[in-house]
């Protein structure tokens, strides 16, 4: 049990969330004046940095994802690409891939195979363009002593050199893509919703950052960009999706989206591919021949906090 | 034309006064400027400048928000006796109470706005332009009820004062329905704010049916405590008549409400600790600490002690009737409730996290300065409204 109040998501690293550098006095006053200037200042203020005035205006007046015409969506995608180019000098492709018909995704995780390597965690960070400084991660692997499933006794920051620890097992937790998601109900501006393929997504350009969804989530799956997420240009994954792994602005919530940029094109999510033990099984719940359907029909599965009625589409099982 | 003169006279009253008045305005403006400068830093760098984290994702701002909604709701305690029980003495100060409600609602809204990660997207909330998740989202409900309450508490005093200004008696028939609406609305703003928290099954500490009643009971302590203190200040700095019967009524309400509030605390402690389940982890953290972390423990025990001393003073008639002791009780209860239903209520809801992690929170100096700025806005709005209200009601029919 870690008790260090400065602990972070990284097991072997004890650095706190990075703080911005102390600003000079002149900048301080300038910013204060800019902030009090109100509405216009916010439209021009760089959220992801260095975008041109036109893009800033276009971004400010951008409509909700579900209300944009396909032309407007294309314009929004190009803005994201230009912004990343300006910011990082990296050319990315941002797409809007719709849900495939006849598909509802589900996940099953074999906890007797999981060894707590956390390869899924790092693969997820690389795939989904998470800010590196912020230590934001979509997957958290809990180390539990055999004989209990009391989450309060779990170690969130176990030392990866010793896994699997004697007498312990591992429980990776990420967004459960609930079929009755409390976060979606909570959002005051409908910035998060469930797509036809069962994935709960976020329009990062619509979220107002009130964080009510974070209070509502029973799985601690939602994370906030407390500052502008930063990553090295070489670390950027250029294959991105509007409702998925595209670069995010500061001040908005994000979470696991079952790698929409991959899974909607028939690929497996990055965490599934990265798992060296084959503990992760991902697939289409509507396909009776899928592996995940086999697991659900033949294994004793359980879901986390099922009693809350959130209907997670994420199951755990043992061999 | 009369309306314009009325507004101009009101503004003139707000900005005319002796040296002490101007000193007060300058002090508040300076504090607001400091808050704005601190908020400027937060705007530039993001909420990273606060002590909040993914683990404790709401903190000092939302704590003050919950408390201020209670202060706003408590204005109803002047409205009900004045209009339902026709207490003439209270009618004289009811407009002051409504002014306090306006100031407190504005403060509550500001605390939510400074807590937003993207205040530049506030327009996304406006129906039509944005998308408003009503009625599903409790936060959407809160936006509706707080704005409605603000309008009601602006409109009613405006009408009454404007009638007086034109030398007419306000038509009770015309505005009484609105007064009744405002009464129910007052209860609704605090109930909705309680539901905002209690709706979350993810947070067992908040997810209790007692929360609504507890919020109302504590509001009826902190509200009257503040009103009693403010009325005495007004009595001293203006020639505004404040009958002692009002103080007596308010302090009795406060005594009963504080007794009920403390009973609710006891009920919760019993239920959580008799057979202690994992749902009691947050309250254990609050009162005793978890895994050696106990940042809120001193605050909650201080709050409990303050409220206990206050309830003794308020419940014993000879003690309560001594003005100095009553003021002590009001001060203690106000701070006690602020600690208990502010930080002592919002923060433990996040500790431990739904995944069982114990991660603490403490506000940064930026949060404290921004909060001080918002409280100064509350004081400024109240002072200006009270000033105009008193000036207009002591010089009726001047237009």
Major sheet of chain B? none
| Straight-line N-to-C gap of chain A | 28 Å
Strand content of chain B: under 5%
Q: Which class of secondary structure composition applies to the elements of chain A?
A: alpha+beta
Form type of chain B? globular
How many helices of chain A? The count is 10
Largest interface: A-B, 71 and 63 residues
User: What fraction of the residues of chain A are assigned to beta strands by DSSP?
Assistant: 5-15%
Q: What does the main sheet of chain A amount to?
A: 4 strands, mixed
Instruction: Please provide the count of β strands of chain A.
Output: 12
Question: What's the rounded overall pLDDT mean of chain A?
Answer: 87
Based on DSSP secondary structure assignment, what is the total number of beta strands of chain B? 0
Radius of gyration of chain A: 20 Å
- The helix/strand order of chain A is HHHHEEHEEHEEHEEEHHEHEE
Describe the fold and architecture.
The complex is a heterodimer of chains A (319) and B (399). Chain A has helices at residues 25-36, 39-44, 53-60, 70-88, 119-127, 182-186, 212-216, 260-263, 270-274, 291-298; strands spanning 93-95, 105-110, 140-145, 168-173, 192-194, 200-202, 223-224, 239-241, 253-254, 280-284, 301-302, 314-317. Chain A contains ten helices and twelve strands. Helices cover 25% and strands 14% of the residues of chain A. In chain A, the strands form five sheets. Chain A has a four-stranded mixed beta sheet. A two-stranded parallel ribbon of chain A has the order 1-8. Mean pLDDT of chain A is 87; it is low at 1-46. With 319 residues, chain A is α+β, with helices and mostly antiparallel strands. The longest helix of chain A has 19 residues, at 70-88. By secondary structure, chain B is mostly helical. Chains A and B meet through helix 1, helix 2, helix 6, helix 7 and strand 7 of A and helix 2 and helix 6 of B.
């Amino acid at each position: 049990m870690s008790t260090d109040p400065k602990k972070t998501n990284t097991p072997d690293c004890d650095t706190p969330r990075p703080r911005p550098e102390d600003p000079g006095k002149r900048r301080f006053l300038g910013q204060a004046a800019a902030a009090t200037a109100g509405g216009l200042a916010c439209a021009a203020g760089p959220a992801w940095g260095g975008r041109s005035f036109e893009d800033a205006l276009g971004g400010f007046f951008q409509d909700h994802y579900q209300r944009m015409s396909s032309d407007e969506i294309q314009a929004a995608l190009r803005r994201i690409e230009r912004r990343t180019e300006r910011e990082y000098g990296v050319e990315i492709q941002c797409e809007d891939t719709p849900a495939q018909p006849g598909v509802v995704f589900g996940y099953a995780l074999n906890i007797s195979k999981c060894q707590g390597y956390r390869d899924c965690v790092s693969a997820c960070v690389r795939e989904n363009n998470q800010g590196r400084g912020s230590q934001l991660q979509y997957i958290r692997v809990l180390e539990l002593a055999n004989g209990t499933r009391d989450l309060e006794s779990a170690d969130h920051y176990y030392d990866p050199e010793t896994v699997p620890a004697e007498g312990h097992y591992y429980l990776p937790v990420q967004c459960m893509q609930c079929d009755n998601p409390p976060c979606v109900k909570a959002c005051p501006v409908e910035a998060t919703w469930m797509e036809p393929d069962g994935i709960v997504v976020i329009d990062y350009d619509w979220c107002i950052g009130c964080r009510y969804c974070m209070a509502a989530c029973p799985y601690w799956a939602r994370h906030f960009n407390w500052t502008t997420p930063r990553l090295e240009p070489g670390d950027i994954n250029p294959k991105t999706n509007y409702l998925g792994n595209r670069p995010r602005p500061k001040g908005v919530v994000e979470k696991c989206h079952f790698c929409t940029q991959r899974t909607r094109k028939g690929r497996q999510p990055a965490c599934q591919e990265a798992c060296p033990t084959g503990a992760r099984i991902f697939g289409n719940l509507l396909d009776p021949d899928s592996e995940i359907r086999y697991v659900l029909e033949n294994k004793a599965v359980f879901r986390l906090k099922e009693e809350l009625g959130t209907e997670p589409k994420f199951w755990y099982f043992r061999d | 034309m009369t309306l314009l003169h009325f507004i101009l006279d009101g503004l003139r009253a707000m900005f005319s006064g002796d040296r002490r008045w101007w000193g007060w305005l300058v002090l508040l403006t300076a504090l607001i400027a400091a808050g704005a400068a601190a908020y400027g830093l937060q705007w530039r760098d993001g909420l990273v400048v606060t002590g909040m984290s993914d683990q404790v994702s709401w903190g000092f701002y939302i704590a003050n928000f919950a408390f201020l909604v209670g202060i706003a709701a408590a204005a109803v305690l002047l409205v009900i006796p004045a209009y339902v029980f026709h207490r003439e003495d209270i009618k004289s100060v009811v407009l002051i109470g409504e002014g306090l409600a306006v100031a407190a609602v504005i403060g509550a809204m500001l605390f939510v706005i400074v807590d937003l990660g993207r205040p530049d997207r506030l327009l996304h909330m406006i129906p039509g332009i944005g998308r408003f998740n009503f009625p599903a989202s409790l936060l959407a409900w809160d936006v509706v009820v707080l704005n409605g309450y603000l309008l009601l508490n602006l409109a009613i005093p405006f009408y009454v004062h404007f009638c007086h200004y034109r030398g007419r008696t306000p038509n009770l028939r015309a505005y009484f329905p609105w007064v009744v609406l405002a009464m129910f609305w007052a209860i609704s703003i605090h109930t909705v704010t309680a539901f905002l928290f209690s709706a979350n099954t993810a947070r067992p500490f908040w997810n209790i049916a007692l929360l609504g009643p507890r919020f109302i009971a504590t509001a009826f302590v902190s509200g009257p405590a503040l009103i009693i203190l403010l009325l005495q200040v007004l009595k001293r700095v203006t020639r505004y008549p404040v009958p002692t019967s009002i103080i007596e009524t308010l302090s009795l309400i406060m005594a009963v409400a504080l007794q009920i509030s403390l009973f609710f605390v006891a009920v919760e402690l019993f239920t959580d600790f008799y057979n202690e389940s994992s749902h009691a982890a947050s309250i254990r953290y609050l009162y005793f600490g978890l895994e050696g972390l106990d940042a809120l423990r001193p605050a909650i025990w201080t709050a409990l002690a303050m409220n206990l001393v206050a309830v003794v003073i308020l419940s014993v008639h000879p003690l309560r009737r001594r003005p100095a002791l009553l003021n002590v009780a009001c001060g203690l209860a106000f701070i006690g409730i602020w600690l208990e239903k502010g930080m002592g209520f919002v923060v433990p809801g996040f500790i431990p996290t739904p995944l069982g992690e114990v991660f603490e929170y403490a506000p940064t100096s930026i949060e404290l300065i921004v909060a001080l700025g918002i409280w100064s806005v509350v004081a400024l709005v109240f002072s200006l409204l009270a000033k105009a209200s008193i000036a207009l009601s002591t010089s009726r029919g001047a237009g």
